[in-house]
Structures are given as C-alpha cells and as structure tokens.
Amino acid sequence: RVDGGDTVSGQDCQQAQADSIGLAADFEKVVDWYEIPYGCLYHPNCDNMLAAGRMISSDGWAWDVTRVIPVCALTGQAAGLAAAQIAATDQTAAALPIDGLQKALREQGVVLHRADLAE
After folding, report:
1. Which residues does 6 contact at the CB level (< 8 Å), separation at least 6?
2. Angstrom distance (rounded) from CA 21 to CA 23
3. Is the terminal CB of the chain with fewer CB neighbours within 10 Å at N or C?
4. CB of 75 within 8 A of CB of 21?
5. Tens digits of residue pLDDT in 29-51
6. What is the pLDDT of residues 51-88, one digit of tens each?
7. 43 near 3, Cβ under 8 Å?
C-alpha cells in the first residue's frame, strides 16, 4: 500500500473527514461507516502518483473495509478526477485544492459525508 499523506484507520470509524472523497460502509458492522480522506490516495513526496483500490493508505480494520469493490470504485473515481485536475492546473497531488475535487465528486453523485445522508 501507499504510505499516504493521511491513513484511514479503525480510529476513523464514524468520524467526519474534512477532505473526504466519499463514504464507505463497513460490510460486517452495518452501523459503522468511514469517510475516506483524499490524503490516503497519494504520498506527499510523489507529486503525480495517485493510488486507488486496495493500495490506498489504510491500516487495521479500515484496510478490510477499504479493500472491497465499492470502495475500490470510489477511490478510483476520485483518483481519476484528481489526476485530471492535477494535469489541468499543473498542481501536485498534495497541493490540489480539495474543494474543487469534492465539487466534481458531488456533481457525479458521490456522497462525501455521513451528515449528507437523510436519517
């Protein structure tokens, strides 16, 4: 796995992430959820490398949650959008403004935060 600018871990269960790129459900513990931070898709010293799927920066139980196909698709979508924005703006992965990426993800129907869901 990539050693990311951020690492999603078991401690992140049911915690909001300001740089969330999407919401992941725990497939075994149905009341648990994770907001996946953008920082787990890149290493801060690799300007233009993005990870997706099972190779994002995660550990512990969060690795189990993030290795499944829906989360792999979510991180792939976010990494693809981020790569396009990086290329268009000549930014690095670490310097990419999160608000632009989050806006693009929302426009594609991605739920970023647990608070965005109706109870």
Report:
1. 19, 37, 38, 39, 40, 57
2. 7
3. C
4. yes
5. 989 999 999 999 999 999 889 99
6. 999 999 999 999 999 999 999 999 999 999 999 999 99
7. yes
Spatial contact of 23 and 114, defined as CB atoms under 8 Å apart: yes
What six digits make up the tokens of 112?
Answer: 């970023």
pTM over 0.90: yes
Placement of tokens 């990494």 in the chain? 79
H/E element holding 13? none
Please provide the DSSP assignment of 54-85 as one string. Answer: GGSSB-THHHHHHTSHHHHHHHHHHHHHHHHH
